[in-house]
Amino acid sequence: MFHPIVEYLLAGGIHKTTIIAILSIPLIHLIINIGRYIIGFKIQVGYSIIIMVYLFYFLGTLLDPYQTTSNIFVGLRYGFIFISAITLFSISIYQIFKKVVMHYYPKLSVVIGATTIITTSLIFIGRMLEDPILTSINPIIIICIAILSEQITILYIKNGSSIGSVFEYFWTIILAGIAYIFLALPIFEDIFLQYPWLILIVLLSNGLIGKYTGLRITEYSRFNDLLLEKEHDEHISDTEE
């Protein structure tokens, strides 16, 4: 049994995945904040990572005829295929029009509009292979693809293709995959549908992380020599006294 409010919404025809998508927004941000500010992942912030998580999630639901649960393996496999294809295609199209004298937004619109080619191609390949996922793509996934294409292009224009930017983008995808796994686990779905008020604790946790000013976990290894040297100096100082 779910929480009475959730039961009321479900009885009124509200889809289960819709409720989960709404309740999961603060949880996804919590996972991102932990990864960025506690662990120390260098990721590209913005809502592109949120779009990636939902792209994973809704692709995973296509295997379920009622689309009430998201299959983690399906979501990750097809999600990485789509993200890789969108990334390579968007950057390639932008490079073609990079030197064309156009206003910024029309040029960006050309790149976003061109994603219809890669989307249609994947659906066509799915039809040839009789793939149940690629032939079941819904409008929500298409919207995610269009928004993600825009974000990828903007990030590429802003940061270029340096090694640092590539690694940041890579860790962004990895963290999006981790957030999706948490979101798609049945136990997390059940917990949030039974106790939706937990969202308040998640919001509070996001606020507390925002106040955190200590070292990230990954920074301990980077500054390990300095910390050891400081401890050594303090030990010598204590000995002399």
TrEMBL record:
**Where do transmembrane segments lie in this chain?**
18-38, 45-63, 75-97, 104-125, 137-157, 169-188, 194-213
Keywords in UniProt for this one? Membrane, Transmembrane, Transmembrane helix
Q: Report which residue ranges the record marks as coiled coil.
A: none
Residues covered by the 7 transmembrane helices usually fused to an inactive transglutaminase domain = 21-226
Q: Does the keyword Repressor apply?
A: no
Question: In this record, what's one Pfam family?
Answer: 7TM_transglut
Which InterPro entries does the record cross-reference, listed alphabetically?
7TM_transglut
Q: What is this protein called?
A: 7 transmembrane helices usually fused to an inactive transglutaminase domain-containing protein
Organism encoding this protein? Candidatus Dojkabacteria bacterium
